[in-house]
Specification:
With about 120 residues, this protein is mainly beta. It is built from no helices and eleven strands.
């Protein structure tokens, strides 16, 4: 019922920046961001999925230690858009980045109920 569509991925030089976007919608009801926790999860080649950042249903952001200080998660409730602003990108940030959402609370820390198809980030040294 919930659809998530990511955009904004691409290729940048090391030290560059990207802003990822996630547009949320629902098929039979109006999606309201304050009813969901939402976040960004990435998976690098050969590695397990890693939570990057999330924002609770009441708007509190949380970050993984690996990216803290380099990323900012935010949301625009008027457009149901979730953003991830990334700076100082390095090759270790290369991954597929997924937007995810879960009703109200994230039972396992990061949202996992609904997923987008992902947007790829590459970084050239």
């Amino acid at each position: 019922q919930v659809q998530l569509v990511e955009s904004g991925g691409g290729s940048v030089q090391a030290g560059g920046s990207l802003r990822l976007s996630c547009k949320a919608s629902a098929s039979t009801f109006i999606f309201k961001m304050d009813n969901y926790c939402m976040g960004w999860i990435r998976q690098a080649p050969g590695k397990e999925r890693e939570g990057v950042a999330m924002i609770t249903s009441i708007g509190t952001p949380k970050y993984a230690d690996s990216v803290k200080g380099r990323v900012t998660i935010s949301r625009d409730e008027s457009s149901n858009s979730l953003y991830l602003q990334m700076t100082s990108l390095e090759p270790e940030d290369i991954a597929m980045y997924y937007c995810a959402a879960e009703w109200n609370h994230c039972s396992a820390g990061y949202p996992s109920r609904y997923w987008g198809q992902g947007t790829r980030v590459t970084v050239s040294p």
